[in-house]
Design goal:
Length: about 375
Amino acid sequence: MNVRAAVTHAKGATFEVETVQLDAPGAHEVLVKLVASGICHTDLSVRDQAKPVPLPAVLGHEGAGVVVEVGRGVTRVKPNDHVIMSYGSCGHCRNCRGGAPYLCSDMYELNFAGTMPDGTHRIHLGGEAVSTFFGQSSFGAYAVVPDRNLVLVNSSLPLRTLAPLGCGVQTGSGIVLNRLNCQPGESLVVFGCGTVGLSAVMAGRTRQLDVIAVIDLNPERLALARELGATHVLNAAEFETGRQVTETLVNQTRGGFDYAIDAVGSPNILESCVASVRMGGTAVLVGGTALGTKASIDMNTLLFGRTLTGVVEGDSVPEVFIPQLIDLYQRGDFPFDRLIRFYDFEQVNEAVADMEAGLTIKPVLIFPE
């Protein structure tokens, strides 16, 4: 079938909205009509080839839509079901079988190699294969998706609002609720007020943390962080060095935070992140960087009981965790919709420009009905 999609043809190029050819779903695959798709910084890192997915590609990995057709062997969903799309996993490696699909042994291949799990392509343009991203390529009006990537949701819920749950929102909130399992009275500092960082702030509020500090350069985002649950905000522009930031944070907590999150992905920020936690505390790296990026950590900082760890997709099992986030949202405890600004699909480049300029936290593309 012919489908309108935003195609990435070259490193750093703007998205070209074109008509591509989409094959029918194969075994254990589902055809979904997109209602909405979030734009994530990971999409832009692939556009810029910091993570080298083969080009041309149709990016997008925060899709939400309605099932149109199912392939052979699909039992989890049926036509007309409403679904959110998330990351791909194999389902049979040791980590998947142990309940940790976010650590799937084939995580990189299934999400960044540019093909479907069977190694073939579903998208073509002028007879040329076009790479699939995260098994979904949600920057298109329709997508063929492995059934493992899908989360079934109630048809009464607003799909356009739920789309970002598939990656950015579940990542930030999952760090707090899943990996760290923060408890009332503990302390957290978040470096970066993007979707991931602010989702962590909102999750921290649901756990009744005693201190939730946030650091960013954007005054408007720092103000929003306060409204969403931050108890302390620091504008990094007011400090000359990262050491000053760290000293201020440690002084606020009399020895350091229980937890710190680097939601930016900068070597300098990671150093400050680790130095900001108390002895016995945990620092988390989640901000995406180009492959090969290295950071320098004082080994003695780790020697005194501090932990540095990385988190992918918030340690989330999407079909379990996303419904939990929806429940928190419906109760008014997790207002992630405040991060969203909607754009028509044809405005994809405007949405990206606003995101890169810091004007929009979470752009969501809306597809024609």
